[in-house]
User: What shape does this take?
Amino acid sequence: MADVETYLKGLKETIIRRDPNQTEFQEAVFAVLDSLKPVLEKHPEYVKTNVLGSLVEPERVIQFRVPWQDDEGNYQVNRGFRVQFNSAIGPYKGGLRLHPSVNLSIVKFLGFEQILKNSLTGLPIGGGKGGSDFNPKGKSDLEIMRFCQSFMTELQKYIGPDMDVPAGDIGVGGREIGYLYGQYKRLNGSQRGILTGKGLEYGGSLARTEATGFGLIYYLDALVKGKNDSLKDKIVKISGAGNVAIYALKKAQEDGAKVVTVSDSNGYVYDPNGIDLETVKQIKEVERGRIKEYADRISTAKYFEGSVWDLDIKYDIALPCATQNEIDEEQAQLIVKSGVKYVAEGANMPSTSKAIAVYKANKVIYGPAKAANAGGVAVSALEMSQNSERLSWTFEDVDDQLQAIMKNIYDISEAANKEYDLGDDLQAGANIAGFEKVAKAMLAQGIV
Ligand code: NDP
Ligand code: 2IT
Assistant: This one.
C-alpha cells in the first residue's frame, strides 16, 4: 500500500491530469487533502479503499443549454449546470448561482465544499451545486422569469425532494426561487420539498433568509468566546452587500459590534460611524441598486472604487461575504497589519490558499467557509424537514436550532483538532470532522 504522501501526490496528479483548467476546483480539493494527512496516517483503511479517489469525483455532472428570449425579442443562450457530487449521507443539496463567471470549475469547487459543509451541519444532506453563466444584472423581471422557467424546464428532470434539492446562491434569491418553483410545479404538480429558500406563503422556512449571515455571527461568537473575548465594540469590515452580508451586518450590530464597510463588485462604502442597516436593505433588497448610492444618502460615508480589502484602517474582525478569491496574499498581509484578530468567511473560499497561510503564520483566528457559512444550508435542511411534515416552525424555534448547529460545528472542529493535535487550526478541524462522517458512510455503502 502506498504511503500517505505518495498517495496524496498521486491523487493530486490525477485531478490535474483530468481537468487541468479547473483551478478553483483544484484549490478547494487540495486544501482539504492537505488537512487530511493525519487522518490517513491513523486510518490506513481510507487509503486502502481509495475513498478520497471517489470523494473528489462527482457522482454525476449535468450540463445543459438554456435558451430564452430577452425583452427586445432576441434569442439568448446560456449554459446551465448541476453537479450531483456526493449522496453518501443524504440527497444532493446546495445552491444555484447565476453569475457570468460560472463554469464547471466554479460549480465543482462549490459542490465539493458543500459535501463537507453539509456533513458538518449534522443533518442528512449530501453535496451538490449548480447554476449558469447568465448575468442577472440589468435584466427585467420578465427576463429573469423567462430565464428561470427555461432553466427549470431542463433541471426538473434531475431533481426531487429525496434526490436533489437546490436553493439560492449568488444571483439567486427569493424572486428567482419563486419563478423556479412555479415552473417545477407547472410541470410536475406541487412538491414543496423540491427547492429551499421558498417564500413563506408557499412552504419556505422562517429564518432561512437570515440564516447564513446570522449563522456566521453565531460561529464567530464561538470563535471569540474561545479566546475569552466578545463582539462588543469590535470594529468589523464586511465585504459584499447581498444576502449573506446584510444579515451578518444585522446580527453583528445586535451583538454590539461596529461594522464600518459593505461592498459590491464595483467598490465599497466606508462609514466610520457604523453602516446603517436599513439604508443598505432599502438600496439592495427593495431598489436592487448599487452600493455607491449609500454614500449619496448617508453623509458620514464615503464611496471608493476597488476592493474593500485595500482600505487601510485599524479594525478587529474581517468577514468576507462576497465571492471566491476576493482576498489575496497581499491583502491578507494588510489584514494582519490592520490589527485583525479574527477572520470568518461568509462567502465560499473568499481567501486564496496563500492568504490563509498568512493568517496562520500570524496567529489570526481563521474560521473557514465550510464551517462559518454552514448556517444557510442548515436551515435549508430544516426547511426540508418542515416540508416533509407539512408544518411551519416559529422563527425562534428555527433560530435556536441554527445557534445550536453553529456552536456544534465549532465544537466538533475543535474536538478534531484535539484528537489530531492540531492546535488552533480550525480549517483542518472542519475538514477532518466533515470528512470523517462522509468517509464512514461511503465505506459502509461499499464501492458504488
Ligand atoms: P448575493 O447575490 O445576494 O450577493 C453577492 C454579493 O457579492 C453582492 O454584493 C455582489 O456584488 C458581490 N459579488 C459577487 N461577485 C463578486 C465579484 N466577482 N467581485 C466582487 N463582489 C462580488 O449572494 P449571497 O450573499 O447569497 O452570496 C455571497 C457569498 O456567500 C457567495 O460566495 C456564496 O456562495 C456564499 N454563500 C451563500 C449562502 C446563501 O445562503 N445565500 C450560503 C453560504 C454561502 P455585485 O452586486 O456587484 O455582483
Ligand atoms: O453555499 C451554500 O451553502 C449555499 N449557497 C446554500 C445552499 C442551500 O442549499 O441552502
